[in-house]
Amino acid sequence: MPHDRYRREARREKKEARREARGEKKVLRRETREAKKETRREKREELKEVRRSDLPHAEKRELKREIRRDAAERIRDIRTEKKERKAEIREDRARALAEADPFRWSDAQKHEVNIRTRRVLEFYGDDRNGTWFSYLHIHQIAPSEILHPQTLQELKDLVRRAAAKGAHVRAVGSGHSFSDIYRTDGILVDTHRLDRVLPLDALRLRDSLADHDGNPVERRHLFQIEAGMRIQKLNEELDRRDLGVLNMGSYDGQTFAGAASTSTHGTGIGLPPIPDMILSLVLVTARGEALRIEPTNGISDARAWREDGIERLIQDDDTFYSVTVSMGCMGILYSAVIQVRDAYWLEERKERMDWDDLRERLREQGGYGGGILDHRHFDVLINPYVSHMSTGHDRGRRQCLLTWRDFTDRKRHYAHETRGVRGAERWKARDVKFMDPEGTARTINTAFRLMGKHYINVGHRVFIVGADEVGGYACEWGFPMNRYLDAVDVILGVIDQAVHEGAQVATSPFSLRFVRAAKAYLSPQHGRDTCMIEMPMLYGTPGRPDEYALMHRYYDALIRLRGRPHWGLEFSDLTNEGGLLEQLYERFRIWRDVRRRLASGGMFDNVFTDRLGISTG
Ligand SMILES: Cc1cc2nc3c(=O)[nH]c(=O)nc-3n(C[C@H](O)[C@H](O)[C@H](O)COP(=O)(O)OP(=O)(O)OC[C@H]3O[C@@H](n4cnc5c(N)ncnc54)[C@H](O)[C@@H]3O)c2cc1C
Fold it and tell me: pTM for this structure?
């Protein structure tokens, strides 16, 4: 329904609801008045009768007292009934008002959610009282123990102790995933203290090194870290050595292992997701053994290999590409050797466009968009709504915001940074909260206009858009290049339908990011260049029947299109019913076999593995 009509109808229905409530209250007041009057009349009659009777004086007095008491009691009942009826009318009115305009919340409600958001953004992790909070407090876990190992030996020891007790174990990073993947009733292993840079000397590397595609890699572009290191620290360490990550997401609070385990990605059709940057890793398995795992043609020289504290070297594609994206199901990742590059600077530009025009352009070359994706990084933010009441160019046209990033020799330009708002996510989030579609459409269009259009900085600073400053959760789905535009149409249909049925407003633009085909078997980008479509929601956006109303609707629609959900975002409706995972991932069976081999006995099982039918216990 066009938003101006929606607003007019909502106003009319609200007026009607208020009028009805006023009418009901009037009737109630009249009925109460009459009931009281009647009670008092009856009391007078009864008293008169008693007075006229020839009963003894004492008895008459007693009877009169009883009549007065009864009448007072009845009046009290009438008053109570009136109060209850009044509350019911108030509730009915509130319900009718909410139904007439389900998306508008009072200022008090908005204020409360804003306060709550700030509080939950400030703290996540272990509260030292045995409870662990995920980012945004979506999950609150009370495991049997929370441990913080600091060395490989401590990690192996704790796994061996857990094995002896038959306890479940789960590694956790920064808890930024939105689903239940890290939940456990057993031992939660907080990996943040495993965050050192490790020298490469201990490795016996081959003379000629290659990446996953067989391209030569220089030794100085290999960097070994413990897997609990946050991306932020990784960038600082690389900066110090004049190096840089190949690519990253739009945020740096995750741990390296957490990000790799869910196939966290950035954007750039020539660039793979984080797990494909790993060339070698060390995993602690359910037996408490440390294994160095690499692809079949891995970087270690197998004949010369020997490493203190590491039991075995496995060079096998199936094992390696299963472990790199394994959501904590195969063991605990201790360290990784990643491919990096020389430090670089990026120049970012943004441009507003009508989505219909961009869509036509992207359609060219089977979704590769006639050169538009040739930039090193390219992404699109799409307004979920069209404004029908704006007086500007955007009236009746869906707006989107394009971002390009390319290498530059130019250095940081302060003038460019101060103009406009840097960061795609810092759009006037609070104003969008709980607005109706028209309000949301206009606020997002304004935000697109306000955003800084030009920015230059060191690579990793340019990637970060301040996603954590707003407080939102999201689902994200991967589609092959020839199908993602159809998926966008379906998503827009879902959003419209949700408004039509009063379910929920999409309180954020949604994004398209492009990722090169990944090797990791369970990466949503496995085997095909992929467009990842992310649909965020601001924390606290009300919905019917619950706050995940749109998330459920996206799931139903996108699983039918055979989209692959991002393992680090919201996908709590996913199960393996009807062999769904095999249909989504051609190498799922191999992945499951590797899991059985490395994680038999169920140590790394949890509600997530139960839900997906991949528990081994
Ligand atoms: C503000 C924000 C911005 C984000 N931006 C992006 C983005 O730009 N691109 C993108 O793709 N995603 C993005 N995400 C999603 C995020 O990258 C993933 O959820 C990521 O997995 C979080 O990393 P983490 O360290 O918090 O891991 P957690 O959420 O703690 O854990 C994720 C999984 O990894 C496992 N795990 C963690 N550590 C280990 C280990 N050492 N060994 C074995 N398993 C382990 C856990 O058991 C769990 O299954 C974002 C999320 C947020 C909240």
Answer: 0.88
Interval between CA 287 and ligand 1 midpoint (Å): 25
Which positions ≥6 away from 420 have C-beta within 8 Å?
A: 450, 451, 452, 453
Q: Is residue 90 in some structural domain?
A: yes
Residue 47 falls inside a structural domain: yes
Separation of 40 CA from ligand 1 center, angstroms?
72
333 Cβ closer than 6 Å to some ligand 1 atom = yes
pLDDT digit string (tens) for 333-365?
999 999 999 999 999 999 999 999 999 999 999
Structural domain of 48: 3-101
3-state secondary structure of 454: strand
User: Does 22 map to a domain?
Assistant: yes
| Predicted confidence band of residue 4 (pLDDT cuts 50, 70, 90) | low
Amino acid 404 reads: W
Q: Is 75 part of any domain? A: yes
pLDDT tens digits, one per residue of 248-277: 999 999 999 999 999 999 999 999 999 999
Let me know: does 321 contact 295? Beta carbons within 8 Å: yes
* HSE-CB for 273 with a 13 A CA cutoff: 36
**Structural domain count, the chain:** 1
Cα angle: 32, vertex 36, 38; to 5 degrees: 115
Q: Which residues pair with 407 in a beta bridge?
A: 346
